[in-house]
């Protein structure tokens, strides 16, 4: 076991795939784990029910903890701006305030490479600074603001780091793998553009071990943002095809030209904004396409992992091929 | 000069100019790349004793504030119409202890507008007044550009005690009356135009910064034009143009002539940094300076135009590297680097590395061996009738042509460009040039006209010998030198030989074997062609190495379908036959033509490029039984110029069953380095081939270094940069570095490239990567430029390619890297055996996602690669470089892969033209 002797750690948002994996790994490494989420998860960790929007609940959960791994966030591609702000920005501030109120503790803020993504290709990119004003979409903008607050809070008493896992996937993943599989089975899966753009992804176990490494090496990692990936960029079309094959779904046959996808995304976003407000327009919760998604799926985005690996003294342990075989 | 009491000279008109038009000193605006702390205004008396306000960029005060003692000073003088902004990078990159004073000449930049035109003589004195006021003392390096050249050099000649070196960039000191002035300047000086072009409008000011290709950034162009914003601020721009003495009776003519003659006596180290695309200071001016400063080092930046340090900013680093080498630091003693300067007939000796050459090495003099005068020397099978010449005839013809050339003014040490197709005539001319102690300049027509012209022009030949069709293109490509046509009537060269036969002047004897013998050119697959200078001794050593390595013995004869080696037959006394083919297009050699050539001399050896052998194999089906029998006779096939696939050599052995197939490894700068017969039992490729378990992932075996040649390995760091130190431990991969008696003397006029390649001194960095095995064999793993710098370390292409190429369904493969250095990804580009549709076949590259290999093939390729692979792409064919038509153009391929994998429509600019094959 590396790093300091483990202590008590709070994991927020542990009902998700990554949060659950982090909680399990921390427990396996001897940490005393408490998880916090809105609904009972039936997990094997000490559990506090509470909403990240509830300041009292957050303070109660944080109090007495040596560290927090903060994953709770609103990750949808649609939704009201104020909800994103309340959960992603204010939620992070509540965690920081809770730690401050009890005199400190370590904080690993789980962020996203999209906080620095302005829509252009990212080719061997480092972890650029988060840019709330330029990031694309409510999620990325609010996560960018949250990351800036977290890193600003970094101090000797409250050592803080921000880790940005990119496109996390794995067994039980309802986001990437789940949606691809579902659409493919419905015959509605389309590749945006040529499907040749190189995209980095992160297998869930690797993302979890990187977050744990960040927590345990916070003396080195503090005060900065680190992108975490498998370090195995693949053409998006190949990756999607591999996932389909791994889950026994038909491979995508449709190709959506990038400009068309972008236009479609704009239209869908407009419809989504209207949905629920205008009588007759159905409520959209999972739009098939947004401009952000169109960009994410048609432009290359992969990252330089040298600094992350050096700072965290960490390597991915599960390759993409191994990960696919576990789906 | 004595200064009489002055009467006020300012006219009413002049006085009116004061105010906005006479701003002195940098305005408040920021100029990109300029540290405002460099800027200062200095008061100094001008040539006439009148105090003037100068603006200079000077890092001296910063050095003084930091308490750094000054080790040397660069005095930088701009031309017209620029200003000290031109030298900002020189200031920025100044090594510790170096002061840079970049002046704005009076009337120019942000210095005072003196109100009257200043002559050259005045400007030289003006500058002296300024340096006195600054208290500038030695060692000083004068750095000049454009018409700042005569001014700065005039200053240099007047300050010899302080002068340590001169650096000249696209300038001139001599404007012969009989020569046309640069067209641009002539145009600007036309009386009607002068005022308009130079003064009334900013046309001239703007034109100067518009010469660069690619264009300079807009903010830089604006910075150059900033001090010349109004017509009155441009007065001096027009005056400067007017002051160029094109006429004999021009007032500044004596001053310019004095500088031009004075420069001949400058014995301080000199560096000429030159942009050859300059429409004003063309090649002619470089040749003039080289001839005045024969000891000068020359650094040509092949893509640069007039503003050479703008177009090739990396040359600033070269200037500093040179200055630090040539200006001794405190306590190092002055002039320590000058004592190895040699005779003025030898051009640019300064860029030799000065290392001792191995002594006592066997050499074969580069002259016709006439010990068996009646034996056939060369047979040429191209024409209707075979043409034959004996060694005796060839020797006599060489003597006669040499006398003929001498009669036309060719002197020892002169560079002679030879534009003659391979064959008896080429052989004759080349040996005649060598007989005179002159230097042959030979470029391969395969370079293409544009690059051929650039290559020859860059070598600055004093004479061009050629047949009319070859000379014709030399004119538009502006190759300098006297033209000597050799195909008047009937047989080429006969006229020249007849002239020589009538002359009885003595030919030179006792030629200096360490003098230059030849300038050849690199293929330029990875950049513009570079001239490579061989000494006569190195040429002789190359002949001897070839003889000893391949056992050329008495009674042997060869077919010369590979030009470089073909020339050496006469020196070795070996008869040779030139087959009926276009020797500049190797793939035109047919099996039948080869058989006729073998029969013509009874050849025991065949020298041919891989492309020629490929066509021989392809056309072998039409051979008659008799021709097949003839082709069974040669004992050796020698193929060089590009990597030769082993499969091809096996096919060659089927056509020439009696022959061993040797593939010498080497490059223009050093050939041969090693040799190998891939068809012989033993290792052909890495362990995957099942032949060599001790040397895993090894690439292509090129054999053991030939006797007399040493090989060292410079290990690569994680960014793919080779180490300075060499090692020979087996199994360690790095850049291949070689030493031997036949290695190039230097790159021609590329001081910077020579510095980088000759490390350690006397060695040559090949740009190839590879390793030695425990049996001393050398394995080549690719080009240094094509090493993929992954986060896990450098990945060399050949070993990966070898492993993937063996897969079923893969016809060819190339490894390329995408992404930023140090974190690159490996990409495999496959040519599947199953071809795509007609569109894909035409373009090579399938559209869209069709570029991704099928999942099954991708999986097998990834598994076989042995390194992590980001993507497996497919193409119909791989682009190859134009010269050899056999090396995969990985640079072009990487650009394509980047476009596919990173989206966007980024087009790569420039680069070698691409041809398809395979």
Number of helices of chain A: 12
Tell me what the CATH architecture of the domain at 12-326 in chain B is: 3-Layer(aba) Sandwich
Q: Please state the overall shape of chain B, judged from the principal axes of the Cα atoms.
A: globular
Oligomer: heterodimer
**What's the level 1 CATH class of the domain at 12-326 in chain B?**
Alpha Beta
- Which CATH class of the domain at 8-171 and 201-234 and 302-325 in chain A applies here? Alpha Beta
Q: Report the largest inter-chain contact.
A: A-B, 29 and 24 residues
- Uncertain runs of chain B are 1-17, 333-357, 683-696, 905-918
Question: At CATH's second level, what is the architecture of the domain at 8-171 and 201-234 and 302-325 in chain A?
Answer: 3-Layer(aba) Sandwich
Going by CATH, the homologous superfamily of the domain at 12-326 in chain B would be Alpha/Beta hydrolase fold, catalytic domain
Instruction: Summarize the helix and strand pattern of chain A as letters.
Output: EHEEHEHEEHEEHEEEHHEEHEHHEHH
Largest sheet of chain A: 7 strands, parallel
Radius of gyration of chain B: 30 Å
């Amino acid at each position: 076991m590396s790093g300091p002797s483990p202590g008590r750690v709070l994991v927020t948002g542990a009902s998700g795939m990554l949060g659950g994996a982090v909680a399990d790994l921390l427990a396996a490494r001897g940490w005393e784990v408490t998880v916090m989420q809105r609904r009972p998860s039936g997990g094997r960790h000490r559990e506090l029910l509470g909403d990240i929007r509830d300041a009292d609940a957050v303070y109660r959960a944080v109090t007495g903890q040596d560290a927090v791994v903060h994953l709770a966030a609103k990750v949808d591609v649609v939704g009201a701006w104020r909800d994103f702000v309340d959960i992603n920005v204010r939620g992070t501030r509540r965690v920081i305030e809770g730690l401050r109120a009890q005199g400190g503790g370590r904080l690993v803020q789980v962020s996203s490479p999209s906080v620095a993504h302005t829509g252009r290709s990212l080719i061997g990119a480092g972890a650029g600074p988060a840019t709330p004003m330029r990031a694309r979409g409510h999620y990325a903008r609010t996560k960018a603001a949250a990351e800036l607050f977290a890193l600003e809070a970094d101090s000797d008493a409250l050592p803080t780091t921000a880790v940005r896992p990119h496109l996390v996937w794995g067994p039980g993943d309802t986001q990437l793998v789940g949606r691809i599989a579902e659409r493919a089975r419905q015959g509605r899966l389309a590749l945006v553009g040529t499907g040749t753009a190189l995209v980095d992804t992160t297998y869930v176990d690797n993302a979890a071990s990187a977050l744990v490494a960040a927590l345990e090496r916070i003396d080195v990692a503090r005060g900065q943002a680190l992108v975490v990936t498998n370090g195995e960029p693949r053409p998006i079309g190949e990756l999607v095809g591999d996932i389909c094959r791994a889950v026994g779904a038909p491979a995508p046959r449709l190709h959506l030209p990038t400009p068309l996808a972008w236009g479609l995304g704009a239209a869908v976003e407009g419809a989504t904004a209207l949905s629920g407000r205008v009588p007759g327009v159905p409520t959209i919760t999972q739009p098939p396409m947004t401009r952000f998604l169109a960009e994410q799926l048609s432009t290359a985005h992969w990252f330089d992992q040298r600094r992350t690996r050096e700072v965290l003294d960490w390597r991915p342990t599960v390759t993409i091929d191994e990960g696919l075989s576990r789906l | 000069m004595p200064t009489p009491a002055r009467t006020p000279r300012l006219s009413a008109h002049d006085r009116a100019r004061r105010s906005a038009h006479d701003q002195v000193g940098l305005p408040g605006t920021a100029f990109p790349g300029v540290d405002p702390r460099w800027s200062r205004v200095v008061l100094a008396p001008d040539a006439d004793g009148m105090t003037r306000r100068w603006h200079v960029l000077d890092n001296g005060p910063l050095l003084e504030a930091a308490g750094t003692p000054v080790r040397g000073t660069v005095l930088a003088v701009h031309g017209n119409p620029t200003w000290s902004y031109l030298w900002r990078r020189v200031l920025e990159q100044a090594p510790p202890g170096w002061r840079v004073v970049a002046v704005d000449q009076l009337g120019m930049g942000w210095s005072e507008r003196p109100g009257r035109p200043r002559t050259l003589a005045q400007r030289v004195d003006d500058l002296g007044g300024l340096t006195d006021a600054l208290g500038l003392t030695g060692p000083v390096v004068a750095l000049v550009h454009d018409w700042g050249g005569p001014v700065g050099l005039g200053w240099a000649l007047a300050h010899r005690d302080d002068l340590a070196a001169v650096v000249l960039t696209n300038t001139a000191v001599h404007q012969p009356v009989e020569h046309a002035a640069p067209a641009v300047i002539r145009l600007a000086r036309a009386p009607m135009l002068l005022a308009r072009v130079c003064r009334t409008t900013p046309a001239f000011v703007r034109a100067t910064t518009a010469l660069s290709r690619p264009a300079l950034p807009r903010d830089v162009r604006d910075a150059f034009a900033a001090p010349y914003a109004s017509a009155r601020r441009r007065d001096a721009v027009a005056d400067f143009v007017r002051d160029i003495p094109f006429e004999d009776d021009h007032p500044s003519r004596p001053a310019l002539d004095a500088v031009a003659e004075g420069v001949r006596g400058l014995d301080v180290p000199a560096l000429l940094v030159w942009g050859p695309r300059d429409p004003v200071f063309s090649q002619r001016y470089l040749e003039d300076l080289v001839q005045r400063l024969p000891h000068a080092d020359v650094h040509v930046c092949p893509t640069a135009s007039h503003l050479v340090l703008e177009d090739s900013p990396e040359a600033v680093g070269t200037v500093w590297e040179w200055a630090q080498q040539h200006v001794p630091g405190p306590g190092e003693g002055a002039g320590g680097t000058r004592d190895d300067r040699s005779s003025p007939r030898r051009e640019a000796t300064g860029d030799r590395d000065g290392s001792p050459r191995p002594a006592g090495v066997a050499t074969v003099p580069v002259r016709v061996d006439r010990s068996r005068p009646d034996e056939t020397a060369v047979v040429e099978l191209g024409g209707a009738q075979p043409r034959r010449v004996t060694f005796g005839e060839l020797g006599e013809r060489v003597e006669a042509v040499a006398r003929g050339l001498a009669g036309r003014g060719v002197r020892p040490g002169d560079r002679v460009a030879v534009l003659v197709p391979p064959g008896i005539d080429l052989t004759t001319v080349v040996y005649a040039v060598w007989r005179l102690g002159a230097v042959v300049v030979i470029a391969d027509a395969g370079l293409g006209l544009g690059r051929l012209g650039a290559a020859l022009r860059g070598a600055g030949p004093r004479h061009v010998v050629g047949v009319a069709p070859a000379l014709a293109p030399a004119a538009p490509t502006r190759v300098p030198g006297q033209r000597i046509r050799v195909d008047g009537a009937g047989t080429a060269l006969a006229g020249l030989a007849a002239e020589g036969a009538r002359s009885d002047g003595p030919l030179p004897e006792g030629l200096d074997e360490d003098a230059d013998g030849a300038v050849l050119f690199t293929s330029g697959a990875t950049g513009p062609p570079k001239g490579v200078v061989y000494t006569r001794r190195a040429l002789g050593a190359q002949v001897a190495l070839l003889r000893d390595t391949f056992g050329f013995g008495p009674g042997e004869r060869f077919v010369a379908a590979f030009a470089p080696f073909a020339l050496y037959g006469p020196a070795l006394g070996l008869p040779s036959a030139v087959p009926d083919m276009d020797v500049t297009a190797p793939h035109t050699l047919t099996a039948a033509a080869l058989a006729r050539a073998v029969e013509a001399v009874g050849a025991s050896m065949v020298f041919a490029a891989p492309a020629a052998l490929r066509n021989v194999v392809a056309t072998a089906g039409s051979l008659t039984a008799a021709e097949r029998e003839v082709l069974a006779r040669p004992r050796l096939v020698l193929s060089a110029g590009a990597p030769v696939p082993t499969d091809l050599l096996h096919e060659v052995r089927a056509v020439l069953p009696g022959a061993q197939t040797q593939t010498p490894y080497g490059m223009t700068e050093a050939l041969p380095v090693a040799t190998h017969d891939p068809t012989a039992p033993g290792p052909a490729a890495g362990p995957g081939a099942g032949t060599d378990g001790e040397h895993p992932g090894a690439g292509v075996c090129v054999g053991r270094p030939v006797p007399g040649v040493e090989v060292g390995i410079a290990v690569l760091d994680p960014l793919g940069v080779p180490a300075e130190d060499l090692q020979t431990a087996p199994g360690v991969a790095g850049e291949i570095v070689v030493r031997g008696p036949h290695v190039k003397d230097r790159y021609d006029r590329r001081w910077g490239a020579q510095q980088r390649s000759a490390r350690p001194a006397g060695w040559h960095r090949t740009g190839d990567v590879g390793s030695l095995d425990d049996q001393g064999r050398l394995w080549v793993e690719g080009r240094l430029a094509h090493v993929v710098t992954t986060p896990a370390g450098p990945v060399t292409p050949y070993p990966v390619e070898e492993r993937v190429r063996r897969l079923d369904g893969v016809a060819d493969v190339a490894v390329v890297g995408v992404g930023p250095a140090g974190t690159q990804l490996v990409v495999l580009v496959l040519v599947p055996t199953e071809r795509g549709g007609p569109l894909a076949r035409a373009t090579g590259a399938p559209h869209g996602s069709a570029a991704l290999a099928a999942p099954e093939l991708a999986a097998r390729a990834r598994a076989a690669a042995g390194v992590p692979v980001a993507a497996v792409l497919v193409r119909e064919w791989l682009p190859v470089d134009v010269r050899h038509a056999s090396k995969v153009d990985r640079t072009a391929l990487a650009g394509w892969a980047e476009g596919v994998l990173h989206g966007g429509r980024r087009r790569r600019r420039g680069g070698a033209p691409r041809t398809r094959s395979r």
